[in-house]
Design goal:
This protein is of the alpha+beta class. It has helices at about 10-15, 25-35, 50-55, 60-75, 80-90, 125-140, 165-180, 185-190, 200-210, 215-220, 225-240, 260-275, and strands at about 40, 45, 105-110, 115-120, 150-160, 245-250, 250-255.
């Protein structure tokens, strides 16, 4: 059954200083349970509660309870939230990051940015369609985070899935568009019209973003960019990508549920971690 609720006063006695203002009693109970169960690797391994009470200056502890709070607010049960928070912060450990070759990607943002978000995606995949405006919005909102100015980069790599018959040719057209500086304009069209990615429609979108439709048609007919698309997908497979969209932050797989607040939190984490010299 549901665990009894915890009042704000009781919560503050157990976890002094942890913000509980917009939590109800059941959410406070859930968050307290996570703090008692999750492990925090801040110096000597201890529970998250032990870390928050004994070492309130520990940045990792503060970030762990902050993420737990977001997941609890989203309706996560304590056991599930504890597992997510532990797994997610383990992904910062040296050796958990992957090396990604971003040169073939279409990127927005400076090359020397501190944080690179890599996305493997498929133009015909409905989840990628959902992710497209979300990632754009999060990157826009992340620019106001401390230390984020000119430090964020978004790189898009192709991972067309076999079950989507038009995804591969849509990716080829995007590669053609990239050569003419129109990748993101075309991608916007493709994600807006995911239900109509047959050859005829693709050439129409090419024309609408200012590309030469005859040259685009020749590129698709001769498969000029097919190998480039395949190479990007092969890299994804090597990195362990199975579905789309798959996101990486500086090579760290993003394993949380994909929503605005959680992706924004992860970008802020990465800025803090890198800004602190690659440690907490």
């Amino acid at each position: 059954g549901a665990s009894p609720g915890v009042s704000s006063a009781a919560f503050q006695r157990a976890l002094p200083g942890v913000d509980d203002t917009d939590l109800d009693d059941a959410e406070r109970a859930a968050l307290l349970k996570v703090a008692e169960d999750a492990l925090c690797d801040c110096g000597a391994p201890t529970t998250l509660k032990g870390c928050l009470v004994g070492q309130p200056e520990c940045l990792l502890g503060q970030r762990m309870i902050g993420l737990a709070r977001l997941l609890v607010k989203a309706g996560g049960a304590p056991l599930e939230v504890t597992s997510f928070v532990e797994k997610y912060y383990e992904s910062f450990e040296p050796g958990a990051r992957k090396t990604i070759e971003v040169d073939p990607a279409a990127c927005l943002g400076p090359k020397d940015a501190k944080v690179t978000l890599v996305e493997f995606a498929d133009f015909e995949c409905p989840y990628c369609g959902f992710a497209w405006p979300l990632v754009k919005q999060v990157l826009h909102d992340a620019r106001s985070l401390p230390g984020a100015k000119d430090q964020l980069r978004w790189c898009y790599l192709h991972f067309p899935l076999k079950q989507h018959p038009n995804a591969h040719q849509a990716a080829q057209l995007a590669e053609f568009a990239k050569q003419h500086g129109k990748f993101f304009a075309l991608a916007e069209k493709l994600y807006t019209h995911q239900q109509a990615l047959d050859r005829e429609h693709l050439l129409q979108y090419a024309k609408e973003v200012g590309l030469d439709p005859k040259a685009a048609e020749r590129a698709l007919a001769s498969g000029t960019f097919a190998a480039a698309v395949d190479a990007q997908k092969a890299q994804g497979t090597k990195l362990g990508v199975e579905g789309t969209p798959s996101l990486f932050l500086n090579g760290r797989p993003f394993i949380l549920p994909l929503n605005h607040d959680l992706l924004l939190w992860a970008l802020e984490d990465e800025l803090l971690y890198v800004g602190n010299g690659g440690k907490w």
